[in-house]
Design a protein that fits this description.
The chain is of the alpha/beta class and 333 residues long. Helices cover 36% and strands 17% of the residues. Strands 2-8-7-6-5-3-4 form a 7-stranded mixed β-sheet, with helices on both faces. A 4-stranded antiparallel β-sheet has the order 9-10-13-12, covered by helices on one side. Strand 5, helix 6 and strand 6 form a beta-alpha-beta unit. Helix 3 packs parallel to helix 9 and helix 10 runs parallel beside helix 12. The longest helix has 20 residues.
Length: 333
């Protein structure tokens, strides 16, 4: 069994190592909207009954309109992590898989655990005729690198021509909807798109995502997940929130993003990438900065494969901005 991958959000472990109550820490280690939306009312039946087809259909139709997937009805899933685990079933064991990296580590783990040869490539130009499947996170985590829809559509066609599949993870795509491949997905039969619900809406604990893919692929994921994969309350919330006006969410995230950028720049840190929901910093003292902030009960994301990198998520409000600024200002390394 392979070792677990370190992710953001490890407040309990950080508090155990550096003290304090977990609820008093400032968690900037994830790329999640720190200002969760107000929850609409959830019908009692959503809690009481198994989620029937009507509830699944309502969430899927709302997702179709929100993601602009046209003829393709997105499949609700219990978080995109659940379907990453299923991806190896799409292709024959032992084949080569390409993952544009560095990126979210669970893709590599899922394929290697299933016996695939995984090539961690630095760009889509390195994806070639040996690959039965390729994964592109767009925009990418943690560096924010992005690819245009036309570029990815061309990659899909190239992979399809050799019997392969393209997986595009758009978990951080809500703020950059013009770059989404979803409006073209109905024309791309060997494409799989993953969308995250919790990051943008600030409801990661709901464990909800969507798969956008042509009928045959969608049906396979639905079969693999089995009945009642997504809870009734999650489906109910999705149907409501995906149809609501998201303008205030967009404005709030933009405000929080600008505030983070200001704090980091005033601290003299070099921002080398990111998305609307996080910033990537490069600094030779990254490990020491991480430890220093932990001593101030502020958690940011460090990377074992890139010791000069730190990823900063958004603060929830100006008070938290000041807390981060003070922590960085007191660093004398």
């Amino acid at each position: 069994m392979s070792a677990p991958i370190a992710h953001g959000g490890g407040i309990t472990a950080a508090a155990a190592a550096f003290g304090g109550r977990p609820e008093d820490w400032l968690d900037l280690s994830t790329g999640i909207n720190p200002c969760p939306v107000a929850l609409p009312a959830i019908p009692a039946a959503s809690w009481h009954r198994l989620p029937d087809k009507y509830l699944v259909q309502s969430a899927a139709l709302a997702a179709r309109d929100y993601y602009r997937s046209g003829a393709l009805l997105p499949l609700p899933v219990p978080g995109t992590q659940s379907v990453i685990q299923l991806l190896p079933r799409l292709v024959e064991p032992g084949r080569r898989v390409a993952i544009v990296s560095p990126t979210y580590g669970e893709y590599q783990k899922a394929f290697q655990s299933a016996g695939f040869i995984v090539d961690m490539v630095d760009g889509i130009a390195a994806i070639d005729g040996r690959h039965a499947l390729a994964v592109v996170v767009n925009p990418n985590n943690p560096d924010g690198r992005s690819h245009g829809a036309d570029e990815l559509a061309a990659l899909h066609d190239r992979l399809k021509g050799q019997g392969g599949y393209l997986v595009v993870d758009e978990a951080f795509g809500d703020m950059e909807s013009d770059g989404s491949l979803a409006p073209l997905a109905s024309q791309l039969s060997n494409l799989v798109i993953f969308r995250s619900f919790g990051k943008f809406f600030g409801l990661a604990g709901l464990r909800l995502g969507f798969v956008i893919a042509a009928g045959g692929i969608r049906e396979r994921f639905e079969d693999w997940l089995g009945p009642w994969a997504v809870s009734g309350p999650a489906l109910s919330l999705a149907a409501s929130l995906l149809r609501a006006d998201t303008g205030s969410i967009l404005r709030r995230i933009t405000e929080r993003h600008d505030a983070l950028q200001d704090v980091l720049k005033r601290s003299g840190l070099k921002i080398v990438g990111g998305t609307a929901l996080f910033a990537l910093v490069e600094d030779g003292r990254a490990g020491d900065i991480h430890t220093h902030l932990c001593r101030h009960h502020i958690l940011v994301r460090k990377f074992d494969y890139a010791p000069d990198w730190l990823r900063f998520g958004l603060s929830p409000d100006p008070v938290a901005d000041q807390r981060l600024a003070a922590g960085l200002e007191s660093f004398d390394g």
